[in-house]
Here is the input.
Amino acid sequence: MNKQKDSIDKADIAASLQAQFNEFILAIYSKGERRIYIDIAPQTVIRATRLMLNEYGARFQIATGVDTSDGFEVMYHWAMDESDCVVTFRVVLPHEAAQVESIALICPAAEWIEREMWELLGIEFKGHPDMRHLLLADEWPEGKFPMRRDYEATP
Amino acid sequence: MSNAINALTRSLNVFHLAGSACNNCDIEILDALTPKYDLERFGITLVGSIRHADVLLMSGIFNRKAAIRAQELIAQAPKPYLVIAIGGCPATGLMWRDSYNWERPPGDFVKIDAFVPGCPPKPEAMISAVVKVIEGLRSGELVPGCLHTSDTVAGDPALETAGGS
Amino acid sequence: MTKRTIVPIGPYHALQEEPEFFKLHVEGEKVVHLDIELGYNHRGIEKLSESKTFEETVFLVERICGICSTSHPLACVQAAEDAGDIPVPERALFIRSMVGELERIHSHLLWLGLAGHFLGFNTIWMWAWRFREDVLNILELITGNRNHYGMMKPGGVRRDIKHTDLPAIASLSEGLKDPIKMFRDAVVQDPLIHARTKGVGILTREMAIAYGALGPTARASNYAIDVRRDHPHAAYDKVDWDVVTCENGDVFDKAVVRILEMFESIRIIEQCIEQLKKIGGPVDSDPKFVAAGEGIGHYEAPRGEVFHYIRSDGSNRPIRHKVRAPSFMNVPTNRETVIGATVADATIILAAVDPCYCCTERMAVAVDSSSGERMLDARDLIRLSCEKTDRLVADSGLQGPSLPIER
Here is the structure.
């Protein structure tokens, strides 16, 4: 184990994030020391991305889209490799206006996952550089999103 | 036995047509060709183009995107050829039958001559399949599916059983 | 004006969890643009998982990829354990690490063999796969199957490793040292492999970070991330090992990182054997349910970090299960590495991230007569690559790698 980095202790990450980002945090909770979940407003996604990339040097792992009864949740998972912690930013988008800013321009790693969430869940990412089908066939019927709860397979 | 069929009982050129597989069958196919099992002893080699193929090995399910390409590709294969389905997926669809990207079993668009079940089948099972297919061709019991006259296999009870379980 | 040609690679891939269709746009010999198309292997696993119980889900994710058939289940059960705060007995942790490392060795040998094949050195291919069989035999001995081991379950592992099997594993790891040294020497000392791979397909550290590259692809670019060290899980914080990194990020470094990692895997396996001799007890905490909540599990697969997110509502099925395989992050880096390279080098560059190799063996050949675009097929690509090796042999008088086996 050649771990020799100076890093924020994982117990302090939540406090540090709260200090840095306080006015935009809607809710924050830690599940153990290694997982932090933060609810933010959709408008602050870009700001949160910049914060994680520039201030913490975090690694973008992936984003998860979930269809819940309250709306579409989009979770951005960030790995803090030095501190053994995963920070998840969560935004909730209403079903009728599933739109959020794309973070692909400042974080190229997010380009493909935004395309995936667009085609499987129908969430629109504003300002995405190259929005087209990634996994499904090009001839996939428009307006049908298989990961949504109300999806019914065509007979 | 015609010359064309006779040729199918000798050194086989194998083309590996993988669909939406998990790769495991595909690695086991390559395993059958590499030193431990060494099917290459018998002149069985992988070829890079379907136009040189005697045998098509199909593995995995064929999803909506892959099925179209697979049909186009199979149309280019020179007759007579044999189709062997490797693994449980092309035979039954296994757990993928409920998926939104599942279209139909490959038995619907190509006549499959032999099934090698397993997840994944061991190389020994594939070798056994090759032996059985060659024996069937020699005795005349097996006629390559691509030579059947009707274009659909809907009425073929053997394939329906295999595709429906 | 130079005529622009499209070289399609794919879509029929077989060796990887994520088949891709690469369209190389080339002018003359030079690659000017790369288009990557996915979806030939999309089976809707995330949706299917919502209809399976937590125990069944493990078997489902095992079939994401036949090569990573420990990595995905391990990340998946860790996510379930994180969601439900399920304890894992210590003995199970060591068994998890050991099976994981055996899988890493077989995966890296597989990659090495195919890399040799693509450079025109089939000898390496056959030798590497020959020693890979020894690993598969051991996996069959301890798990019951050559692939798809079915070892993981939430709360532990599905079956114990017998004490009587430990000597066989020990003699395997001992017996693998010489062959891996042989491969290391064959690659590191061979001038011809240097000529084909050094300085080819360089991924800079900045680009590796920007694209979120993972695993050996990142570590070859001196971006030292390894989930086994950074986010300790299984028994990786209880054994002694090192993270292997290289400086340059070219194809050569990616090969070297993988070869050196196999030595680390052997170290880990040896320590796990010693620990398993000492630690007894159950291998499964046998949880009856996964409590409501959400959990994240990640594991360093042979290709990089596998990421699983599971949300449970307290029932016996996950209500959301997100899977991210490492190639999802690694494959886009090809857009940086392949531009400006020659077509003969493109094969090995695309292969160097270990996305899928055999891909090039089964591609559709299409000729677009209307636009006059000429398309090459897989055979042409491998031929181009092999011809370049032959040219180098003729020009320099170098010999291909010789493999002195003393066994």
